[in-house]
Write a structure and sequence with these properties.
The two termini are 44 Å apart. It is globular, with a radius of gyration of 26 Å. It contains 22 helices and 20 strands.
Length: 577
């Protein structure tokens, strides 16, 4: 064990195996126990689109400080099948401690592996009851090395498998205990130890992932109707809200397809509900006509889009920021919209909550744009505050002469709903007059189009400003949006550049007015995105006229790591203009 590892206050653990080997179970058990033990924890996964086989991995950071980004470095690696080492070869170093069955895992070990602890995991599992217990033994080994509370681990295992037969529960407890004993022995005999300091206040925080953060935000925003068709990586929001639908009085419906989902949501919104649709790029493509309908009948709806690489099915279980332009132009015709892109789990909660208020206030579609990496990543945050959240309904009681599409100075017509008041609440997908009656009066068409677009004046005034991190007298400016927040922040901490700042956008359309001011102050600007054509860069040029020449782009389906981002930022800033 090297002295560098002994001093580390941040431990990077990777478990790698095939789909069906229970890696997700290991992740859940470990991250919750780390958090309950008072450590900061960050966890993310990369996995193939298959039910069995392939090679999947979970990366877990356990830290004495805030951790919310992926590290390439691996301190402890547990490979659970023969392809694991080849799959992770680029991340393995001479300081990586590999723990596994050497004969089955590493007949031809990569040359950089210098520390391999041979453990006959399969034999141990077979003695307990079968290969199925390998994953719990592995979780026990990690727990033993870091000397977590064994009794707490046993309780977590018992709770996790509480729906199983009593004998199965006992075998899993036996597995975690046996693994823990091995890990504790390795820690003591081989000097595997880390300088981790627990923090008492973490026990009062919550450990959630992106899907749960968006779900919590929707509930806080007063969401009372959800209609969606399952599509990775958005399905987690559908599952989360469905699980809590009864408690929060939400009508959650799994529609037969995405076309039905968007139209059901619009129908519910017309009746006064706060409606949410959650989908991914392929699903949004099917919703185009419904989104356009929302624009014409001025009916609010919140649409969560969890991005994955395309075109077509693409890489359905990987990450990308490739759907910004799709969301920007979804639906035919011209009508206002807002696009929000949370960078942190805290943002996901607050922005999703805010999205419902914005949609209701301006009677438009509001998009929440996330991605697979964001959706599937866990870390500690303070518990979301439901106490100070208000869901303001922008609904009036109608009179007999009510006109749903009344032309107003700011373009926002008073919104009535059927049954609340004396008025008739009409809607029409054709161009219509103020009472929502179909019209082909071309002068009136011009007035109605201008009325709808007039809302953008107010929307721009209320745009959420970007967050500047670093010195205000910067010479270099790094631009990011959405899920690149934490990795860019940590990369800049690593680099320690005194004249470089980071500008993170959580609203990507319409752009806040101060965007141009921030950009014009910089001598060098670098933009980082998870797509091939720098879609946000193009949007910035369209809105401000400023063309950013330096880009950091990644689109192989994997998220940026801290080390990778630091290297690319350093290289970009060293390039000659």
């Amino acid at each position: 064990m090297s002295s560098n590892q002994n001093k580390r206050k941040d431990v990077s653990i990777v478990i790698c195996g095939a789909a069906g080997q229970g890696i997700k179970t290991v992740e859940k058990l470990l991250v919750h126990n780390f958090s309950h033990s008072g450590f900061h924890v960050f966890s993310t996964k990369e996995y193939m689109s298959r039910v069995r086989g392939g090679t999947n991995s979970v990366s877990i950071r356990v830290s004495s400080q805030k951790a919310a980004a992926l590290k390439d470095r691996i301190d402890i690696l547990l490979p659970l099948h023969s392809e694991a080492l080849g799959h992770l070869e680029k991340r393995i170093s001479s300081e990586t401690i590999v723990i596994g069955d050497k004969e089955k895992i590493c007949k031809d070990c990569p040359t950089q592996i210098k520390q391999f602890i041979d453990v006959p995991l399969e034999d141990l599992a077979r003695d307990i009851g079968g290969k199925i217990f390998i994953n719990i033994i592995a979780a026990g080994i990690i727990s033993g090395i870091l000397k977590l509370d064994l009794d707490k681990m046993k309780k977590d295992v018992k709770d996790f498998f509480s729906q199983k037969d009593k004998q199965i529960v006992e075998k899993n407890i036996q597995s975690i205990s046996q693994g823990y004993s091995k890990g504790e022995k390795f820690s003591d005999q081989k000097g595997i130890s880390f300088d981790l300091t627990p923090w008492t206040e973490i026990k009062n925080q919550v450990l959630i992932n992106g899907a749960e953060a968006v779900g919590f935000g929707a509930l806080a925003g007063g969401c009372d109707f959800l209609s969606s068709y399952p599509m990775s990586p958005s399905t987690g929001v559908l599952v989360f809200i469905s699980q809590h639908a009864h408690k929060f009085e939400v009508a959650a419906e799994q529609a037969e397809d995405e076309i039905s989902a968007i139209n059901m949501a619009l129908g519910a919104s017309y009746a006064g509900a706060r409606s949410l649709v959650t989908t991914s790029g392929g699903g949004l493509a099917l919703m185009g006509e419904g989104i356009s309908l929302a624009g014409m009948i001025e009916t609010p709806v919140v649409i969560h889009v969890a991005q994955r690489p395309g075109p077509a099915t693409g890489l359905p279980t990987r990450t990308e920021q490739g759907d910004l332009e799709l969301v920007l132009h979804a639906g035919h015709g011209e009508f206002p919209r807002i696009i929000l892109a949370p960078g942190s789990l805290e943002d996901a909660f607050s922005l999703t909550q805010k999205a419902f208020d914005l949609a209701d206030k301006f009677q438009i579609p509001v998009f929440i744009l996330t991605d697979q990496f964001f959706m599937d990543s866990y870390y500690n945050i303070p518990a979301p505050d439901f106490q100070n959240v208000q869901a303001n309904k922008h609904i009036i009681k109608t009179e007999n002469d009510y006109k749903r599409s009344l032309i107003t100075k700011d373009g926002i017509s008073p919104r009535g709903i059927p049954g609340y008041g004396e008025g008739l609440v009409g809607v029409d997908s054709d161009e219509h007059d103020e009472s929502s009656h179909i019209t082909e009066d071309l002068d009136l068409r011009t007035q109605m189009a201008e009325k709808r677009l007039k809302k953008m004046d107010q929307i721009k005034k209320q745009a959420i400003p970007p967050e500047l991190v670093g010195p205000e007298d910067y010479r270099n400016l790094i631009i990011g949006w959405g899920s690149t927040l934490h990795v860019i922040n940590e990369a800049l901490d690593v680099l320690g550049l005194k004249k470089t700042a980071f500008l993170h956008f959580k609203q990507v359309y319409p752009l806040p007015d101060e965007t141009k001011i921030y950009l014009e102050k910089a001598d060098q600007i670098v933009i980082a995105e998870h797509n091939a054509t720098s879609q946000f860069k193009k949007l910035i040029k369209l809105e401000t006229g400023i063309d950013i020449s330096k880009t950091i782009l990644k689109y192989n389906g994997l998220a940026f790591s801290v080390e990778e981002m630091a290297e690319k930022i350093n290289h970009a800033l060293e390039q000659e203009d």
